[in-house]
């Protein structure tokens, strides 16, 4: 998922607006598990782990012990505004 230069940039308000709804906000809190991340992006969990191991999610998450936690708003900004690419 790399940016194609189509000029589509989402504002912070547009990125966070869906989570103001209590159902979405509860399902996808600000700090996500790998499963929640996969569900949100509609990709397999293995894809999230692959992206993380290749450094495509740099700046979007942290390891907590052996668990990976993803910051939702940073993830959405990276996916939709910056694109997933090696830096």
Structure write-up:
The protein is α+β, with helices and mostly antiparallel strands and 87 residues long. It has one domain (14-81): Arc Repressor Mutant, subunit A, CATH 1.10.10. The chain contains 5 helices and 3 strands, in the order ααβααββα. Strands 1-3-2 form a 3-stranded antiparallel beta sheet. Helix 3 (34-41) packs across helix 4. The radius of gyration is 13 Å and the shape is globular. The mean pLDDT is 88.
SSE blueprint and pairings:
Elements: H1 12-16, H2 22-27, E1 31-32, H3 34-41, H4 45-53, E2 61-64, E3 67-71, H5 72-82
Antiparallel strand pairs: 1-3, 2-3
Helix pairs in contact: 3-4
Annotation field: number of helices: 5
CATH fold name: Arc Repressor Mutant, subunit A
Quote the average pLDDT: 88
Secondary-structure element string: HHEHHEEH
Quantity of strands, as a count:
3
Distance between the termini: 14 Å
Radius of gyration: 13 Å
Give the strand content.
5-15%
Describe this protein with a few key phrases:
single chain; 87 residues; alpha+beta; Arc Repressor Mutant, subunit A; three-stranded antiparallel beta sheet; 3 strands
Concise overview:
With 87 residues, the chain is an alpha+beta fold. It has a single domain, classed as Orthogonal Bundle (Arc Repressor Mutant, subunit A). 45% of the residues lie in helices and 13% in strands.
């Amino acid at each position: 998922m790399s940016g194609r230069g189509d000029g589509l940039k989402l504002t912070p308000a547009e990125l966070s607006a869906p989570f103001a709804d209590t159902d979405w906000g509860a399902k996808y809190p600000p700090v996500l598990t790998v499963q929640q991340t996969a569900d949100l992006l509609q990709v397999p969990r293995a894809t999230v782990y692959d992206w993380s191991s290749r450094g495509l999610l740099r700046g979007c998450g942290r390891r907590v012990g052996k668990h990976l936690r993803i910051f939702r708003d940073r993830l959405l900004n990276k996916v939709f505004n910056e694109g997933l690419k090696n830096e």
